[in-house]
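Posting this for the archive.
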Amino acid sequence: MAETVGARERGRITPDEGAVLAAETARNAEFGKPVLIYPNLYLVRVPLPHNPLHALNSYFILDDDGTTTIVDVGFNHPDCEQALSDALAALGRSWDKVQVVLTHSHPDHTGNLDRIWREGMPVLANLHSFQEVKNLMEMEGNVYGPLLLQAATSEQQQDMTFGEEGPRLHVSAELLPLSTYPIMTYLADGDCLSLGEFEFEVIETPGHDPWHICLYEAAHKILLSGDHVLERITPSVSSWFSAYNALAEFLDSLEKVRGYDVDLVLPAHGKPFTGMGERVDFLIEHHRKRLEEIYELVAGGHDDIVQISQHATWRYPDWKSWPLDQKYFSMGETLAHLIYLVREGRILQGICGHEYYFRMPYDRKNLALAPGRLASA
């Protein structure tokens, strides 16, 4: 049975009560055991084996006609498949009337489609095809492969593959892009998604992922936020291309959702929470401070991705000893902040072969501008 913590036979609960119930139960709920948020809306924890996030919050929305909508599905891993199957059984539902909505393209949200997808199962996302994701990953690999080779220790180079396309980070099977390419129903900004008694507005929120969306339900004032706004975790924002200002998109998307009247945020990781405006403010300030730190590192003479990433402040010390995949994520985030500064005109970027370099701007006499001179120039 689904958990409700003292409200098993009650009618509709208020948003504040829903937040309390979810917070009390979701954090420690068993994987695959539905947690009631509202009547016909459940949170289901899905394990993420061998991943620091530990779990995904999948959301099950029930329609009176027997249709179950599952929002985000987990890794391509048997434990993820089992959790979703257990939840369907607990709710008296079956796979033959399931549709899937994806908040974005990352494998901890999509990979399980390779296991659960059946012919005719609707899949809805801000994607026309998963070929878009595969194409982007291949292009990114051409950039980050050589950079990771610079960052890797001799032992870590064994975790890389080398082919005609150059060095690549070796990833486990559950992190690979989908091999199943279901026909997609494209969700655009402003679309209305009717799921049972709920009417969700689709909000495009690129930044953490180019195809990220949130779902807003005005009648209940709830936001299914995916990875865009999380209770404790700061979502990663990466870019490997100078032309793609991912951090600017992310900050714009934060301002965008701030304009919605939200009582309860239902995130993809961590517990549901209230106070979205305060959390948005925190995230914006976090990135403002990070931008200034990265700027000062460049002003101090650190001029390439590895150096800047190595000397930036992180939660864990000794960047050189980090696992290679964590170096990959940190370098992508560092580059996203550097690109933002370049696009603001605060620093210069140079590219030589596979290497990216960053400098302070130069005046017409080819002299480096001091950090304080940029604003008055």
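The chain has nine helices and 16 strands. The chain has a mean pLDDT of 88.
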